[in-house]
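Entry type: protein chain
Record version: 2
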Amino acid sequence: MALPCASPAPAEYDAFLPGSPELHRNLRSNGPYRPVRLVPGRELRLEPNPVWRQDTDPLRHRYLDGVEITVEDAAPEQVAERVASGAADLPWGGPVAEPHDAEPADPGDGLGLSLDPYLVFNVQSPGAGGALADARVRRALSYAIDKAAIADLYRRSGRGALVRIAGSVVPPGNDAHQELDLYATPGSRGDAQKCRALLAEAGHENGLALTAVHLDTALDTAVARSYAADLEKAGVTVRLVALDHDARDALLGDPRRAAAGEWDVAASSWSPDWHPSNGRVFLQPMFQSGDSRNSANRGRYRRPEVDRLIERALGTIEEPARSTATWNLAERTVLEDAAVVPVLFQRPVVPRLRGQRVRGAVPMPAFGHSYDLAGIWLDPPDDPAG
């Protein structure tokens, strides 16, 4: 078994430049379907793979004559309208839930939640005189955020998620979760006056000026405006910069641009790669020191004590109690430094929207709650003759 990044590739791929149009035209498949047309960022068509055989692959099935995936810049409401009208069978790549009036209940299946969103500080930014390198400033800013308002935005978005206000990094349902909130405020509504007072103690009685980057979707824009308004109540001027996914990820993933101060604050999310025995999947990638591109440690936070705790926890992974205790200590240390501001825990629990004829479309946590095409089939069309 291997994660996709470590999976073997066909020898034929050696003839093509990775990611090139030529490679896209010559993709191989050992599954029930094969790609016959791929235009990155626009469309993908799959057809039955003529070399696949059911008798040698009893775990997968082929019920469809083909699959067409179209990539468009469409809001969830537009996607839902197309599915409801029969113009499409399934949303793909974006969470679109069935209509619901209230926040769903936790299904109780033991699968962990995600940290989504959290605010990350660029501790290397020279902006505002390098203020974000000072843990006192980050602690002050942590008190300002009205997390309840952001939770309301997500609940009204119709995404169909179980939403809980977060005070810690590791969400419930994951190993090493602990009930922790070092910067709690009444009703989780934020405390601008406390933030302002702590900023003054840190030498910023006249406030700060920060740049916050966010995705250009309607929900992400609303979230950014919400926390920016919270910070401005505490005397912090926030310049908002909206970016598409590729531009945002390129910016946050580049350590040189972090050091240049191109951004100060951003909302991000982190989901566990697996659910049981997963104490390491949050704290190690998010906070272990490193300057590699596209690191999950987007704020470039580094503290030798945290690095030592991470190594100690990894070294006792065969002793769950000791390992968990060490992860807990590492998490508390990170939060005392206010490297990030946990905002919400989330878990998709409302069934995803699907067309009336679709069967076998089961969201799979290992696929980010996407679907396994090898298990999907369609009801035959109604017989007009009755």
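Comment: Residues 320-336 form the longest helix (17 residues).
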